[in-house]
Amino acid sequence: MPETIAAPAPANLIAGEWSPSATNRTYERVNPWRPTETVGQFPSSSAEDVAAAVHAAEQARREWAGLPAAKRCAFLTDAATRIEARVEEIAQDMTREMGKPVRESRMEAARAAAIFRFFSGEGWRPVGEVFEQSLTGATVHTRRRPVGVVALITPWNFPAAIPAWKTAPALAYGNTVVLKLAQDAPLTGLHLARALQEAGLPDGVMNVVIGRGSEVGDPLVTDEQVRAISFTGSVQVGQGVREHAMRLGKRVQLELGGHNPLIVAADANLDAAVQAAYAGAFWSAGQKCTATRRMFVHESVYDDFRSRLLTRIEAGHIGDPSDPHTEVGPIVNQRQFEDVLAGIERGRREGGTVLAGGERADPEAYLVAPTLFEGVGDGDFLSCEEVFGPVTSLYRYRTLDEVIERANAVRFGLSASIFTRGLATAERFVNELEAGILHVNSQTAGADVHVPFGGTKGSGYGPHEQGRAAIEFYTEEIAVYRDV
Ligand code: UN1
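# 2-aminohexanedioic acid complex -> structure
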């Protein structure tokens, strides 16, 4: 085992070597809870680093694809064990670098290990189907083949889970990888790379590049040796990635924003609905694309729900993300923090009433108090655009027809949830809500590792991620006609 991997070096990983950026440029990442505290210096990579990483992945591609899947997956099993052993260390780094409350960081680090475990099992699954030729009865069979070099562009808000759920299937199905880690949270993803390194993954099979999207993203997407791009991030950047990819004839998968509704029906268990509303809107400071942005409450229970939610907000623990009781920590960086405050201001200007929060909650940290609006019009900014923070709005509704229509009246379709005890109500919601992930009596966020994940409408593009669904993106299916 090379000695250079003793610590998660704040470096790129190219062809099995931890290396600084080609220009030696670095940037400093600060802790969003205490922005005077530096988390580390990281490489500020450029097109040159991307070219080296892609080249390494291309060199490693044939040999890796030629290994039996079970052998490839043995590396994932080993890495899963290493990640499990370091859940606490990974969680602490995650909290320090991007401000996720440690209770959620721990769950996420454990989830990354579970994702590696799930995909390690893929080495033992069938790789095709058998058919009879229609005229002769001779055999036709299909086979899944890896796509080749894949680029994985990942965000800061799930810095363990998302790199894991792209990397693990990419490797399991025989692709080689260039993983771009988010500038705001590189340390967490480096733990995953280190675990794979220590498991003995052959050099060049997985490469990691850290840097700015504008400097690293474009050369990565346009490099002709990159055959497929999986991207999670903002709508605007995602659309640019898709345009480039389509023009160049590459496979592309996008996970973008959401504007997720929670519906509280007249017959809901209100206590459970309030807990889910709080968690969905405010945990991780609302920095999830699955966070609850709109809460539609039946008029008969509106006042009751509103006062219980305000009590819950009052009782919520906000502040230092390294405190295990904290539920709402800081916003990731100053720019995002200012965007969230600007979104709140716009909500006020357009006539919304702030029932709770609405302001900075700590003089040093990028902390925004859980913010609840009322009186926001359906066509207003807050009802349509994603403000990536702990900001949500309450709406009153009368009929199921009306609420389904209003819930669907956004360009996004990632997740949605309903609280009801009525089977018929739940059934209509399940049939008619336009979203990729529907919850009956649970919050809008959260995703199980073995279940397909992805949005509809403007929330995503291409095949879903996670579970066995991931095979669609990371393999190409071929048909083999066998005659004698
Ligand atoms: C979750 O809700 O646990 O970036 C996962 C995001 C989503 C992942 C959400 N792609 O917020």
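# post-check
The first strand starts at residue 12 and ends at 14.
The two ends are 49 Å apart (CA to CA).
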